[in-house]
Amino acid sequence: MKLSPPPVTAQWLNDNERREVKLFYRRHLPYARPNKKERILTLSSSDPASDTEILAAVRLRTIGQFTLLTGMLVAPDYRGQQLAHQLMQILNKALEKEMTFLFALPHLAPFYRQYGFVSQHQAPKDIEQLYQKYNSKHKPLILMTYCPTQGCQQY
User: Fold this and answer.
1) Residue 63: is it exposed, middle or buried by C-beta count within 10 angstroms (0-12/13-18/19+)?
2) Could you tell me how far CA 146 lies from the centroid of its own chain?
3) CB contact at 8 A, 127 and 63
4) Buried b (16+ CB within 10 A) or exposed e, 94-110
């Protein structure tokens, strides 16, 4: 059942606030394992009439001198209501300062292109190794990098 999103609050989590997000991922994306080294941005309900609930989250993992955007997740009952767009609008400010990559499912590549990501054929060694590990015939992924302007670095 799709629910109308309540008012939301965006928050970068600190180390003491990760318990709820771990439960959120376990409930909706069981193979995802947020860790303490990742920066995590959440959108939570901010309706004072109800309990606070995480509606969407995304993780940024440092890989050497680069960043990997991973674990973008919107709770199933709230999909199609622009929550992922809200996360990306907030993330864009953080991504401007970092060389960021992601591994997109093919049907999500157009979504990420709206926010400055472009397909990449190569990546730095650490990113490339992870990409090769996760990419497969059964679950193909598209390697993308954040490039809001022309002339981004190619590998």
Assistant:
1) middle
2) 12
3) yes
4) bbeeebbbbbbeeeebe
Per residue in 117-129, pLDDT tens?
999 989 999 999 9
Q: Of the candidates 125, 133, 131, which has an alpha carbon nearest to the alpha carbon of residue 65?
A: 125
Q: Which helix (H) or strand (E) element contains residue 142?
A: strand 142-146
Percentages of the chain per state (helix, strand, coil), in multiples of 5? 30, 30, 40
pTM: 0.88
Residue 55 has pLDDT above 90, yes or no: yes
Residues sharing a CB contact under 8 Å with residue 123, sequence separation 6 or more, in sequence order = 101, 131, 143, 145, 155
What single DSSP character describes residue 132? H
